[in-house]
Write a structure and sequence with these properties.
Layout (H helix, E strand, L loop, with lengths): L5 E4 L7 E4 L2 E4 L37 E8 L13 E3 L5 E7 L9 E8 L3 E2 L5 E2 L5 E9 L5 E8 L7 E8 L7 E5 L7 E9 L3 E8 L5 E10 L4 E4 L4 E5 L6 E4 L5 E8 L8 E8 L11 E2 L9 E11 L5 E9 L12 E7 L2 E11 L15 E9 L4 E10 L12 E9 L10 E2 L16 E7 L6 E9 L15 E9 L35 E5 L6 E8 L3 E9 L4 E10 L2 E8 L6 E9 L2 E9 L2
Amino acid sequence: MNGSLAVLLLLPVFLSTVRTGSAIRPVSDLASITAAPRGFVPVPRGMPPYAAPTPGGEADLLGDTTQFGTTWIDIMSAGGCGRYALCDLQDVLQVAWVKCSVPATAERHIYWNHYTAGTGWAFPGGIQVEMNYNAGGSTLDADSSGRTFISYYAHIPPYPDYLHPAISVGQIPYAGMMLEFITPPSPVGLGIPRMQVGPGCRVHLLSSAVDSDPHLYYMTGIFNPGTFQLVYQPAWTVIDSAAYGTQEVGISSSGRLGIAWVKSRHPEIPFDGDVWLFTDDDGLDPDFTQRFNLTQFTDQDTLRAHLDASLLFDQSGYCHVAFTTRSYFDTAGTGYPNASIIWHWSEQWPDSFRMIADEFNPDDLVSCGSWNVKIQHPSLGLDSATGDLYCAYQFYDTDTLHLSDQGLPSGEVYISKSTDGGMNWSVGTNLTSTNSPHNAMAGECKSEVDPCLAKRVNGVCHIAYLLDLDAGCVFQTEGDWTLNPTMYHRVPVGLIPSTPLVPQHHRLHAEPSSVQPGPPAMTPSRLALKAFPNPFNPVSTIIYELPLAGRVRLTIWDTAGKLVTTLVDGWQAPGRQELILDGSGLSSGVYLCRLTAGKHSSTRKLVLLK
């Protein structure tokens, strides 16, 4: 398959073979591979013998829950947890998760299942979608037919010590028969893939390098349903340096590509980071030199990006990004341990960063565990029928009367709602409302972690999460190994309140008076784009301002993602620019005016009324 290593998985009967070039080797030969993968952490304490309790007993559970699988690990992925749940266009929920079948071992595999209202889960316990020595970091997407695409990293024979990304693709939607396609070789081991599928079954795959100076790599390929072949591009492309596992990729219905990730300002300081963003209008030939620093923190700012980002496109083509910040004081190199804020940014209002959730409390000193803060892991979803945005996130209950026997808090799943495109967000609603007993032993905790909100909300918010039965991450020597349920939480949108709203009293950046002066920079907030009148009939004046000279492209698109006209495409000097848009030959409706200048872009909605 284009010279790459492929594994044919005929599931659920497991008539599987490993294909290397033209040679075929039985899967049973994998048992001869004994080298242990890197990074394995043994059990931190003696594992208590217990039976995993049945999920339930929540005091104020909002919506309905059901269990789709189990795993002995207690984390879905490093950094953010990625998109491992989706609601496809057939209203079928699909999930892919990392299942560890034996405690205190390194052997893990990727399992998949799907759920339909009225019939429940198709495969009790799920179906294994790869047959490698070890695998992890799953994300999934589906094409318009519901065909499943699952990305993950794996220890692939004959290189069990070398992480390598792969994608398994369903031969028939919902049948559980998968083909595995190994990506082309990379110069370094690559882990924590993130993947989305665009128009024409074009796959966009990100992966983080596993080394002391991690970088973000990009790969694309096209799947042919007629031949059941996924053909990748010849080589990986390096995007930029990036914190491990923090990347997110999104695709619009028109094929517009968006990538967000966290990049450290100083590689030696793990929590001194910014959120970076890249967008491309068609995703066919992305120029990653056009990436830009979305947050642009300075030494005077007291916030820094945490280790996660969520990205999606709305029905009008605007890009939305949610991310977490934690406190950081540059001169001291320290910050408050738990103080954290989840933010929203949109291309529709590029100069506004709005708070989704605010837990910036300097007095909250209970440790949430390694690499964790009070609120984190935002996961965006969109109900295109109403335009409402939703954001699920993880919240740690740091009540000192509800800590585990190791002094760790349990996680909860919260959700917030915006009815105005992200300018305002409702105060978070606790969906799970579980309380662990004080000094809870392994098996007694209920810690919901790593929530993933399906990006498509169809009148229902579909959320997957891991129910850790002993708070803490065993890979950070916190908590014991427990057999943890993986949960699906179904919440009708009518149960999620849209008020009260989160007070917008924090700023992402320090007040201008406290920022040291410097040369002007071309940032999204300085790239102005306006149209007057709007709505218009049939003429509107488009006005934009360029802080710096550079190549400028001004285009008009319809809401189906089709290019209507290109107004400007060339080099322009800085300053104010004006031109006339004549809509005499256009039909009444909504159009998008998109300005791209240098590394940055801005989009405005235009309404033509005749």
